[in-house]
Amino acid sequence: MSFKTVERKPLTFAERTYVPQIVNGLMTTFKKMVKPNETLEYPEARPPIPEGYRGVPTLVKDPNGREKCVSCQLCEFVCPPKAIRIKPGEIDPTSDSAHVEKAPEAFDIDMLRCIYCGLCQEVCPEEAIWLQNVFSLSGYTREEMVNDKDKLYELGGTLPDKHFKWDQKKAAEDRGNAAH
Amino acid sequence: MIQPAKPDLVTVFIDGKEIAVPKGTNVIEAARMVGTDVPHYCYHPKLTVAGNCRMCLIELGMPMADRATREPIMDPETGKQKINWIPRPQIGCGTTVVPGMHVKTQSPMVKECREGVMEFLLINHPLDCPICDQAGECKLQEQATGYGRGYSRFIEQKNVKPKRTQLGPRVTLDDERCVLCSRCIRFCQEVAKDDVLGFVDRGSYSTLTCYPGKELTNNYSLNTVDICPVGALTSTDFRFKMRVWFLKQSNSICTESSVGANTVVWSREGVIYRITPRQNDEVNDTWMADSGRILYKEVQSGNRLKPTSDLKTSVAAAGSLLQDGAVAVVGSGRSSVEEQFLTAKLAKQLGATSYIVARHGEEDGLLISKDRNPNTRGALVTGLISDLPATELSDLSADIDAGKVTTILSVGEDLTAAGLSAEQLAKVTLVYLGSHANATSAAAKVIIPTLTVFEKSGSFINQQFRLQKFASTIPGLAGAADDRVVLDQLLADVGGASAGSDLPSVWAELSAQIPAFANTAYANIPATGLLLDSSNWSGLDFPEGESLHFKPAAAEATA
Q1: What number of CA atoms fall less than 13 Å from residue B218's CA on the CB side?
Q2: ipTM score
Q3: Which of A96, B52, B325, B436 has the least C-beta neighbours within 10 A?
Q4: Measured between CB atoms, which of A73, A173, A176 is closest to B243?
Q5: Which of B126, B130, B245 comes nearest A77 by C-beta?
Q6: C-alpha angle B494/B498/B503, rounded to 5°?
Q7: The whole model's pTM is what?
């Protein structure tokens, strides 16, 4: 094994007094004293959430108030930690959205399992599940940390819709039936 | 000239691969034998060929020969006989192989044909896979992915057809998803013999409907759901219950009658969602009755027997009761072969007479026989009974009245249904092994809760004396014990020699002691069943009449 002796330069006089280093350090201190604050008084003050942030997964309704989820169970299938549980159900045939046929009877997301990966949002063919900007959840029991369908809709609210797929479908059906 | 290898075999060339197939095979089946998939919708191996979906188009060619001299025309480049390809594609399902036939299943023309057919099928398809129960097992999904063009050029209005129609009590129809393959129509005509379905209107307005005033009510209607390649026909019972890709499949045997239809039980996390038929060309082809498909509901029925004490205590209590009195053992034609064997052993150890109760119902000549016990033959083969059972236990009834029997062990049989009165049951000490509560379990002194057929493994012997095995699908009800374990422990408690209750040990004993099972092990029973030698029981007058793939022995003898 070979080694090399490094020559150490002797300290200059200025360095030996430590004064330039102290002045340099204090300059940073005084600069920060007059600059505006960078920390937040969390939780009273909240940080701005950037677009595309992956917070708590939620279920959303379309602007007409129709629940968008049709319980196809693709999110349940794709969910890596198996946090999602869905019990599919049938929409009441007398309801306005009877032509959608299917809606979840129960929809649970276990937030102790969720890893906020966003695959559920990516896989959803109905754009019904969205990871929105809620990022802090807390509860006293494990049961509280499971978001059921009501909680998910409460968290999700209503999002704008680009397609109104099922409304278009119903309009096409009405048009077709009128032509017969 | 290419000579067939054997008289009944025809040599054909599929994508250049040479294969000898039986005479009368069509190109789809021949291609399947070389491992090539020819996509199709309307063709079904158990139905007549309709040839209307055009998905199985292939290119056909025959070796060239001089018309006048029949001399083969050789290709100087390859030194082989030239192939005369038909310039237009042909359907694979309707083309029977002939010697020397050449088939192309992967040529550019075939590929284009498939893309064209897929495009036409998809233009009026509602694309509602998220709410369609067929998603995951849909031929349209699979073949659009495998053979479709991948994008749509259709910008016009889609057709509108009836949706959510109840075709019958068990089948829901969505006409927009229908690809007009006519499999369901042919099934109703040819197999169920209940010709109620048909197409009305023409062209793109063609619609599947029921004959006016009729319904698809026959007991085989759910087979149309199985054979529907798309989501047009769906089961009302299974509608929106669970996506198929979550379901685990286990092979089982239908317990409805002595036909022993082969089934697949679909479950997820200990809950059964549906039962579908499993192909067995010797027993049920690809069909099964609707009434057999709802039997899974017994697993979660409200009258399941739940344990009140642990197994050891109840078995010990039962054992001491059985050792005290004059015992009769009522076994069951619903028990598996293994359980009947252990029941017979137990009866022998106790010196008791053993009975089973016959159950008779209407037979339909197809897949439901008169004998509604799935395993009457098993009781004969294992020696539990020596003669055909009766529907009423009149001998036992007389013995009780005469005081010759003071204790009865019933393996899942309701004795009041077999002709014993409540007073007679009150006179004897009853030990009941079973999964569900009934009048007998209510009168029993000791109840040992056991498992349903979906929670345990075993085998049945059907009307053809075919030994067929079934596997447990879901975990058993908490605290309920496997019948085999209970019978084995009872046997040990009353002083019998127990050789273990697991399947290999029971089968080691079975193959050693029962001549019909010589050299048979449970693991070696093939998926299609094992036909046993039935000559020992040929003198018995079994109740079954003729049904699919079954002729009664008496009829066979006269024929």
Answers
A1: 21
A2: 0.86
A3: A96
A4: A73
A5: B245
A6: 135
A7: 0.90
